[in-house]
Amino acid sequence: MGTHLTIDHLVYATPDLGQSVRHIEELLGVAPVPGGAHVGWGTYNALVGLGGSTYLEVIGPDPAQPEPTSPRPFGIDDLDEPRLVAWCASSRRPLVDVVALARESGFDPGAIVSMSRRRPDGVVLEWSLTVAARTTESSSVLPFFIDWGHSPHPSNDLPVAGLLIDLEIFHPEPRSIDLMLSAVSDDTRLGDEPARIVVDFADRATLAARIQTARGIAVID
Q1: Exposed e or buried b for every residue in 115-149, given b needs 16+ CB within 10 A?
Q2: Buried b (16+ CB within 10 A) or exposed e, 38-70
Q3: 34, CA 20 to 30 Å: which among 18, 101, 110, 122?
Q4: CB-based contacts of 21: which residues, under 8 Å, 6+ apart?
Q5: What's the predicted TM-score (pTM) here?
Q6: How far apart, in whole angstroms, are the C-alpha atoms of residue 140 and residue 138?
Q7: How far is CA 6 from the centre of its chain?
Q8: Which residues are CB-contacts of 73 (< 8 A; sequence separation ≥ 6)?
Q9: Exposure pattern of 75-108 as b/e (b: 16+ CB <10 Å)?
């Protein structure tokens, strides 16, 4: 496959953040650490490194915030159980160019929005990312894109639970997903990104990540 995308992070959404943090610790052998609140979005996250500049984000409702005026991201309000719901990619290109290329290839990553959160140590992170409705089967497994700007990358100070080996994308029409990903690929990777992106056939669209840990290979889906 001619896809060269740096996987910035994986998104594991949950209706109960504390419970899912404990589950990930049992699975990977390392506990995700508190990330911070997304004020106004009604969510809080916890993070753990997956090697290089890639990390796992566990995100769920933040009981310290009032109910948001709009649905929480990643379909959190409708989840009965946690699952791997999305992945985020970085690119050498400006986000506006990535969005244009994606739209030409047949998928819309959405509008570019600015966000921020304050880490428990007081450091404020600011970034821009694409936000799409993610209402189609294809959009549920295609990436959103991020630019951390001048903020330090979250992976810099995270405990590392293992090495992301590959991200498996399952879809009824894998060839179309392959083509869309290739359209937004960089000519070269941003760094020593070890993870492969594998697209395979399945009756429904899902994601699965294989991670090499000290305990062996763990699968998050």
Answers
A1: eebebeeeeebebbbbebebeeebbbbbbbbbbbe
A2: beebbbbbbbbbbbbbbbbbbbbbbeebeebee
A3: 110
A4: 31, 32, 46, 58
A5: 0.94
A6: 5
A7: 11
A8: 38, 41, 43, 59, 131
A9: ebeebeebbbbbbbbbbeeebeebbebbeebebe
Helix or strand run (H / E) with residue 198: strand 196-201
Q: In the block, which residue shows the tokens 């869309």?
A: 180
- For 64-102, the pLDDT digits (tens) are 999 999 999 999 999 999 999 999 999 888 999 999 999
Closest CA to 128 of 91, 74, 167: 91
CB 167 within 8 A of CB 195: yes
For residues 111, 99, 140, 51, the Cα torsion angle rounded to the nearest 10 degrees is -110
The span from the CA of 207 to the CA of 174, in Å, is: 13
CATH fold label, 6-220: 2,3-Dihydroxybiphenyl 1,2-Dioxygenase; domain 1 (3.10.180)
Q: Is a pLDDT exceeding 90 seen at residue 137?
A: no
d(CA 5, CA 185): 5
Residue identified by tokens 């405990």 is 159
Query: Cα-atom radius of gyration of the chain, to the nearest Å?
Result: 16
What's the pLDDT band for 138 if we cut at 50, 70, 90?
confident
Residue 98 tokens, joined: 């990535």
